Every structure is written in C-alpha cells, then in structure tokens.
Amino acid sequence: MQNEKHELGRFIRSMPQTSGVYLMKDRLGQVIYVGKAKNLKRRVSSYFQGSRRFIRAQPKIAAMVEMVWEISYHQTRNETEALLLEGKLIKQYRPRYNTDFTDDKQFLLVQVDLQNKLPRFRLCRNRKEDGSQYYGPFAQAGMLRSTLAEMRKRFGILLADAKPVLLEGGRVRLYEDARAEIFGGHNETTLDEYRERVDQACAFLEGKTKELLKELKEEMVKRAEAMDFERAAKLRDLTEALAKTVRKTKRFTRDWVKDDLLEEHAVQALGDVLELSVLPRVIECFDVSHVSGTFVVASMVRFVEGRPDRKSYRRFKVKGGMGNDDFASMYEVVGRRYGRLSHEGRAMPDLVVIDGGIGQVGSAGEAFRELQIQPPPLIGLAKREETIVFGDERGELKLPKRDPALRLLQRLRDEAHRFANQFNADLRSKKIRESVLDDFSGLGKVKRASLLDKFGSLDALKKANVEELQSVDGVGPKLASRLFAFLHPSSMKPEPQR
Questions:
Q1: Phi, psi (5° rounding) for residue 23?
Q2: What predicted TM-score, i.e. pTM, was given to this entire model?
Q3: Residues 406-421: tens digit of each pLDDT
Q4: Third-level CATH fold of 260-420
Q5: Which of 39, 151, 162, 364 is the most buried (most CB within 10 A)?
Q6: Residue ranges of the alpha helices (H) in 34-187?
Q7: Domain 440-492 classification at class level
C-alpha cells in the first residue's frame, strides 16, 4: 500500500498546472469523485497535504481521500470548458462523493422556433431536430434568465409565456397583460418588424453584445452620478450577467438552422471555393480520438446534400497501438475505409475532409497512394485558425467566419469529433466495468458476461444482494457471498465511532 501511495504522489507532482477536470478512482477502478480545477496540479495536491485543515475538518473528504487509488485528468482550454466537462462526467459516472449535477439535469439551452411566424425564445435542456435554432449550453441558469428578461425589454421579443394576438392590418400585439404597458411602443408591431427584432436578439446570443453593453454601462454611470445608487447597482449586476451569459458559449456548441435551401447553398458555396469540378453532394469526414495515447479510435461521418446521413456513419478501433501518432492512425482508418469501398466496387465520395492540418491530410493521401486508388478531392480543416489545407500543391485557404462553405465544414468536423469522442467514452466505460470484475478471482468470462447481462451495469450489480446474485446461472451461495463482499468492502468494516 505504501508503494502505491508513493506512485500516486509522484503522478500528482507530474500533473500540469493548467485548467481541467480530474477523476479520483478507488482500488476497483470506479470513479468516486470528479472535480474541476483552474490549476490541476495545485488542486489535486491540496487533498494530500496533511497540513490542510479543511480536509481534516470534513470527514467526508477525508474518507474519500483514503479511498483514492488512482487519479486521471483531462486538460481543458479554460475554466468554463472545465465546468461543462465536469458536469458531463459527473452525469456519466455518478460518483458517490459528488453532490453537484446528480439530479440528471443538463445545462440550459435557448431555443428559437424560427419556422414559426412569431418565433419565441424558450429555455430547454435538450436539443431536437425540429428546425429550431439552439444557443448554448449556458452554465449559469440564473444569469441566463436575467438575460432573457432584459432581451425581452430591449429587443421586444416573445418568450415562452407570451400569448400574442393578431390584429387588423397585419399587425400583432405581443403581450395582452400588464407587460403591454412596460414594453410601451414596441408591444405592437408587424410580422416583418418582429423578424428583425428576432435577428437582433439572435445576434446578441451569438456574442455580438458590444453595443448593448455599452448602453447599459453609460446608463449605469448616469444613475450613479444622479445618486441613484440602487438602480446603478442593478444595472451593474445586469451588465455582468449579460456579459457572462454570452461569453464564449458558442465555442462549445455550434447551432444550425435546418433549412434545405441553406444546405443546398452551402454545398454550392463549398464547391465554388474549393474549385471542384463536381459539387460535393456526398462528403465524408474523419476524426481520431484518444486519451493520452490509449483507447485510440476514429470516426467517419457522411453528409449527403449538406445533411447528416447517420446510417452511413462508421467508427474504427485503431489497430497496432498507434498511441499519440495521429498521422499513423489517420493513415490506417482512411486506408481501411476506401480499401473496402474499392474492393466492393462502391462509389467514392465527392469530397474527403480530414480533421487536422497538413500532416493528417498527407497521411490520408499516402493511404490512397498505397492502395493505388485515385483519391477524391482531399482537404483538411485545421482547428486553431479554421484553415483549409489541401492535399495538392495549393496553399492554405482561410474563409470568413460566417461563410456558408466554412460553416458546412465546421458542422462536418464537429459531428465527426462528437461521434469519435462518444465511441472513445463508450470503450473507456466498458473497460472500467470489465477491469473491476477482472480483479475478482473465481469469476470466468462466461459468468462475468452472465452477471453483466443480468444486471446491465456495474452500478446495478453493486445494488444486488446475495440472493439476487445467486439467481445468475453458475453463481452459487459461496461465490455470491464472496462477490458481494468484494463489491462492498466498506460494508465489511465496523462502523466508525461517533
């Protein structure tokens, strides 16, 4: 035990001093706590410093630290990203020592039903394929609600609780209750005018906040100079809430309006900027995912006419222990995909997109050359600057942020990234589940599979009593009792004195 603790201490000292999320695991490999940190090394080290009073003063934390056998971590670009990842991992693993996010709620989104004549701004927690525009996720629910309330006043938009009334002459009254007086002149409008308001509000949620924030700050100064400190303080809090609500949220999720005309336009625009002889009606995009060189997987997503063709998605376990070598991994999966298409005599896509820069694109091109196959047009999308790189002698291409061709490529890349990460997470979760039972002697592959088939997950298995364990074929009373004791080591210890 002493040696394990020594190794754990050495690992902690090697951790990076960057923002991220850390996972604490017990001797069975089960995640018992997930936390976020501005500085991973400093935060994790604090748990194991005997001088820290707050650890000793909290029996729950002290008990958790005693159980820690292994620690892993994920680096993030900033604290906000760490917060989002923390919530996701807590919902995934449901660690026993976490109290936050355990109610199975997700971060809030703002939904705008743009297909409606009078789009409304609603709060929701799940994204649907319903033609709506979605913004978020937003980590601060209270600030988001304050932001929407202010947006209703400033832009004159409808929220979910509104019951608009159509008037003569093509006009509409947004609110019929007391709010009609609050909103004054903009409570009655035309449909065209209202759509302009919606566009302004959507632009605000996309991060274009400079003008409104400037107005609020100017009003705050005027109120303070007039000695109206109460109103000035409210404006200060509102300004802060607005800024924090929209700050960088678009970095985590891109939102797309499901519109056939827009998608067709994006396909045409992409063909034009890439100077393709054939429109890229069928596009395939590849991404590689791994965790510190382990669980190396890849994804291939396929878009037809600018829309996901999910039945054609493919995922790959990278063979040969490629580790951190993204180039070799890309070479392998591209070769496997198009070697098979060639062997089966199936048509190639109109465009192949690689998530990465010139190195990944070069590896994909080498795979085609090795197969002696004439490749379709081949490009990469480098994340850092959202730069398009080509598989031929052409130089890099950088498009405007809102260019429809770039947005289509981003959507492809993001979808491939999501699909690869999900596969990676599934494999890691399966490995954790299997490795726990591997440590239990006397349980072969058949019985282990039967137990997992019976109960569905390790968590459900741990909730089973001895009699329920015995209901599985091949598991007798003695084996069931031993397995129960193995899964519940704390239950075999005497209760601490109070």
A1: -120, 125
A2: 0.42
A3: 989 988 998 888 888 7
A4: Nucleotidyltransferase; domain 5 (3.30.420)
A5: 364
A6: 40-46, 53-56, 59-67, 79-93, 141-155, 179-183
A7: mainly alpha
